[in-house]
Amino acid sequence: MSSPRFRRWALLALLAAGFIALVSAMKLWEVSLAFLFPQELQVVHPRATLLVLVWEHIQLVAVSSALTLLIGIPLGIWVTRPGGKELQPVVASVTSFGQTFPPVAVLALAVPLLGFGLLPTVVALFLYGLLPVVRNTIAGLNAVPNDVLEAAYGMGMSRFQALLRVEIPVAARAIIAGIRVSVVINIGTAMIGAVIGAGGLGSPIIAGLVQDNIAYIVEGAAPAAMLAILADQLLANVEKEFAHAPDIIASPA
Amino acid sequence: MIRLEHVSKRYGNTVAVDDVSLEIETGLVCVLIGPSGCGKTTTLRMINRLMEPTSGRILVGGRDISTTRPEELRRSIGYAIQNVGLFPHMTVAANISVVPGLLHWDKKRIARRVEELLALVGLDPYAHAAKYPSQLSGGEAQRVGVARALAADPPILLMDEPFGAVDPMTRERLQTQFASIQQALKKTVILVTHDLDEAIRLADRIAIMESGRLVQYDTPEVMLARPANKFVHDFVGADHALKRLSRIKIGGYVKPAATVRVNASAQEIASALGGHRWGWVVDEAGRPVGWIDARDLPSAASLSEAIVRADTDEIAVARTATLREALSRMLGNGMKSIPVIDGQGRFLGEITLRDIETATAEAEP
Ligand SMILES: Nc1ncnc2c1ncn2[C@@H]1O[C@H](COP(=O)(O)OP(=O)(O)O)[C@@H](O)[C@H]1O
Ligand SMILES: [Mg+2]
CA-nearest residue of chain A to B50? Predict the structure, then answer.
């Protein structure tokens, strides 16, 4: 019963439940932050409860990460096909250029074009998370052994069948590792969305910086860190699901 | 039948395959051999259209393959390669199921076929079907590769150094096993190798290539006896007479010989030997356990003292063995004749050094 796989997922479920319970307990935060920072008159951000802020944050990251995957993975696939191979170096350097851009600068550029709020934030996060996904998709697909591909074609798979049934599954772990990095980066970067009114866990942090209130900053930063750890663990578990010899055999009692 | 007609393949300025014409009869094993880079793989890959010839054409069953869709053609041709290329994310069973799946066989039929094939290549279906390639030894992986190539029962099998990536002992076992599978299935096989012993062991026809050109296409016997040119001569080496012996089974050269039971009386011995000087001694089960020399009998106190005892496995050869093995057994034991036994170890007759000499002369094609 207690296979390593079962234990992995059970532990994650436990952590997630603990996290939700913790961010739901506003009273606990008020008391502990008041104890830690007695100099502050107000210790929790009045705009919304933590649970709402976390939810906003998750939505922000989910939407931008979904976009990243939707664009990044097909882009990575395309530049490893015969038709798009010449563009591989270009795409690789453009995406890494995207990452050297400070997110605040992306926001500053996006606001005049897209206005305030959710949209420019999502665009910035999307661009920011693109590199690890594209890079790992390319690396994963390039690393599929030649013999494996040769066997796939030699057995009569079409290019599309070989991609779907062999290349992507074999590259899956690398691709998911890229997604993992991308999502964790985005959970941190999403903080800056609050600057232009996108909400999320950045709100108490920005308020804390403006009003010089450390309690606010901790209220935003602590749950964000926990969220990043949770997301990292979730994707680590998913990554393990694609191991080439899943450890489904129960360990001896 | 597979027919290559003036097939050439160029990569830029390199001529990988140069005007090769070749006909492989149905049910035979054709071994493509030659030094590295001589165009063996390229030739093989043109037959399942993984590569297209620059010029010339290839016919399979009388039909020009360029008129068949590549995917369709490949599903009807088994393909096994040196590094096996098993799909690492699929179990052994799933790997073997790929081509039947592409051909839309129903699930039950595929499952039955997987079991059948694993048994055929000598792997226990229960122990191996659910394993992943990373959990297999090199030899097991190669067997699975062969099983996968045979999955949809294709009439043709292309094999590119299929036993290349394993240790010599395992390789020999795999070759023997492949030979017996081929005996039963009678596929049309094109096998690429650079190992001459492998070619001689498995081939009905050998095609030797040198820098893209086909230099000789013959039976192994003819190839060894009459190399077409210096290149082939050097390639097959100086010990070709010995190599030729490994093509000939003992079976036809076994002769009856005098045998004596271990517990025979003096009279029985005399009548069994019937004037011969030597006799093989067999035990109650009929297994040869030594020999006697008639001249030793008068002086010996008993028969058991006169017997020169020997280990059956040391001196005897199986009827299915080759003349080369018989010869090496004789030389090893310093004997001019040795007993031949059946599968149960029972005495069948003997084979002599003279028989081997005769066979060598006869085999000269
Ligand atoms: N894709 C390719 N591009 C260019 N040259 C190639 C390619 N494949 C093979 N060659 C060349 O063609 C020749 C024959 O190769 P190959 O058929 O693989 O030889 P073998 O299998 O006998 O070792 C070699 O000189 C090799 O370098
Ligand atoms: Mg080769």
Answer: A154
H-type alpha helices, B212-322: 220-225, 230-236, 240-245, 266-273, 303-306, 312-315
pTM of the model: 0.82
Both B136 and B17 in one domain: the answer is: yes
Say yes or no: ipTM exceeds 0.95: no
**Run of H or E residues at B293:** strand B288-293
Judge whether A126 and A71 are in contact, CB under 8 Å: yes
What is the domain count for chain B? Answer: 2
**Whether residues B173 and B88 fall in one domain:** yes
Q: Residues A86-132: pLDDT tens digits?
A: 999 998 888 878 778 787 887 788 888 888 888 888 988 998 899 99
Supply the DSSP symbol for B249: B
Task: Say which CATH topology domain A3-244 has.
Answer: MetI-like fold (1.10.3720)
Q: What pLDDT shows up at residue A102? A: 80
If asked whether residues B265 and B234 sit together in one domain, one would say: no
Answer yes or no: do B213 and B256 share one domain: no
Q: Domain range holding B265?
A: 250-363
Atom 7 (ligand 1) nearest CA: B11
CA-based nearest residue in chain B for residue A242: B89
Amino acid in the structure at residue A147: D
Pairing of strands B213-218, B205-210: antiparallel
